[in-house]
């Protein structure tokens, strides 16, 4: 009979216990993994499609639906059967969970327009796909999983032509949708939240090549596409992101200028309570002053009536006092300054035509300078008179606005009287002049003298 070894028995028991614990832990892990896969399969069968590579034929997971997993070639072939094609895909690199980088694929779906000679393919849908099985299909195309889609209908013609109608044009446009044909991603100065896209089209309007479009935002966290803004530009310029100053919101600027009249629309990126896409683009308005300050209120009133440079002087004066200045006030000032830069540049540029030189000075609110040009050009006064006679109101609204803020401005009263004399007659011009408050009796006499000189020619 062999002696019993306590040490040997102890190790036999210990290793047996460890093995049992290991088997139990493995079973629990498999149970948890199986439960997780079951939940994933119930919520989204496509999320566990990768298991097919380990399953035998006949046991593979089947996913049925219009957005079955397909390669890009298969997708293009399926669209072709319905008379549609795809545009150039855009890779949307995003950080979904900060630790994992994903490259979603944006695919524009195109439909060909009938009776068309140029830019015949219009974008009718945007789709976002997520590549899967990348590491398991070396040398082959990835399968693509549809994660977001957005129907595109185009932009109403009446909206596209609205700036022309507001400037006095006859063509109001119709409700028919104009096609969107080009898709580009904003890169320079665009906000870092999500992906910003510009979907655009073009059409001719007289001598103008008008650009129009929609600003599309993709929120990768919720895999959501949304249209945040429709825009139009009579001079054919695409919207641009303004360089963001410290403490300011990201701002998108649309140029709607026509002729010598600058017009810019600015839109700021702001938050909203909408889980799929918590961002929106809201316009910077000049109708609601950001500060309850008399000079600030007057400045925006002058700006709304086209006196951009004068308004900017008022705003700078208020800002220099450094009392209650805010980010909203700065946004309004930035918009005014953008307009003022245009009118200032026009006024400082040499013009071969004297009447145009007078006009650009008046548009910029350089009343005294315009008077100097008038007095220095006796041979061109008929031409200048014709200019004033044809004014449809853009000069008169500037005169009325400034005289409301500063009623005794002699240089402004001079041009008010000149316009009335050109459009009506001298007696009515003098009658209007007599109703205006004067800094001194000599002021009215000087204006009357100039009226007599012009009338005598």
UniProtKB/TrEMBL annotation:
The keyword Transmembrane helix applies. The chain crosses the membrane at residues 12-37. It comes from the Bacteria. Keywords: Membrane, Transmembrane, Transmembrane helix. This is Uncharacterized protein.
